[in-house]
Amino acid sequence: MFYTGNPNSVAAEYITPEREWNFNKLSADFSSVDVGRILSLPLSHHVASDYLIWHGIGGEYEVKSGYLFSCSSSDDTIKSVSNPNTAWWKSFWQLKLPPKVKIFAWKAIHNALPIAAELFKKKSLTSASCSLCLNAWESVGHALFSCKHARHVWKIVGFSFKNKAAVSMKIEDFLFQISECYTKSELETIFCTMWSIWSDRNNVIHGKLPQQPTVIYAKAQNFLNNYKSTQLLYLHAGLSPAATPSTCKAWTPPPPTCLKLNVDAAFDEGRNKIGFGAIIRDSNGKVRASMSHPINGCCQPQEMEAKGLFYSLKWARQFNFKVDMVETDSLILANALRKSTSNRSSFQDLIFDVQTQLSYHPTVCVNHVYRDGNQASHGLAKQALVLDNICTCLEGFPLAILSVVVKDSLIL
Ligand SMILES: [Zn+2]
């Protein structure tokens, strides 16, 4: 850990009066890697004495998980000494990338792409020159980084690489080197863009016209964003990708005279920012209030959802809304609120916070809803990611969610 602050400081000095980590103060005294680690510890709002917890949602120690942890940590030590590449591969497989892109990157590093220089060596091609620019040997480094077609794309993406290094170094070493300089989210963009550049190169070889660099980049971004939002959908629903929900349920209004609160959380990994969205509607679908609330942090999805619900309930109480129904698209959260448990974990601490807020709304019930029925609060959570402070609209909502609110009210 790298620390430049006052050696006598205590953790409480890095916590705001709103019980969130003070991002600016942390950034001033800790390295960015450590700030990320600290932000991943969610803070609860009730006073509790310190206690030791084990990794995982339950917080209870199990021999099996202890054995697995000890194997993985001793493996790490051995691997980091004997083979630094193993650590790189481990973090590579953890990147949130579509499987197709991971396989492509694996092939690129293992010289398994049908690149002209390799095919020439195997005498499958009569020339090793680049099929696109005809100006150089087509190595993986040339095709993906230093060829003028690739360079135009990287310029749009906003990354600049040393072109000489890309062709003179082994592609494996070159990628290891650039991995040191970029965040996980930037590396995900880089690998997806490499894949898109390669797809375009293949299309040209098969007789198609080359795409504009902006189109190649947009294809990479779309592929990555679609993959990430699908993964998030599974997480929200508490399902594994194999168990895709077969039914999509639209938003439904509460019974007459009742109010329904929908809540959601969104996350900007690159900026360690979490957005919470909340919307209260009546039986006619009329919006009574909406909120977008940003905080700094990067905890687990179910922890973000729990925090979002906590802030939304607190906000509803602050504006004297007597909420009758609450909906979240996190199945883990909805289930955790139903069960009473003696487990000790950071998630359980946040559940306790939510239960404290729920005690002010004694008749309220919290239900799980599919993502389709929670789009308005999702839009508000996303909106929070571009705000610096909490934003509340009474008797209204931001224009960004107009189409969703109208769509929900048409179903009535
Ligand atoms: Zn070229």
TrEMBL record:
Coiled-coil segments on the chain, per record: none
GO molecular function per UniProt? nucleic acid binding; RNA-DNA hybrid ribonuclease activity
- Residue span(s) of domain Reverse transcriptase zinc-binding: 82-154
| Natural source organism | Cannabis sativa
Please report the name of this protein according to its UniProt entry: RNase H type-1 domain-containing protein
Xref: Pfam families: RVT_3 (PF13456), zf-RVT (PF13966)
Q: Which intervals hold domain RNase H type-1?
A: 262-384
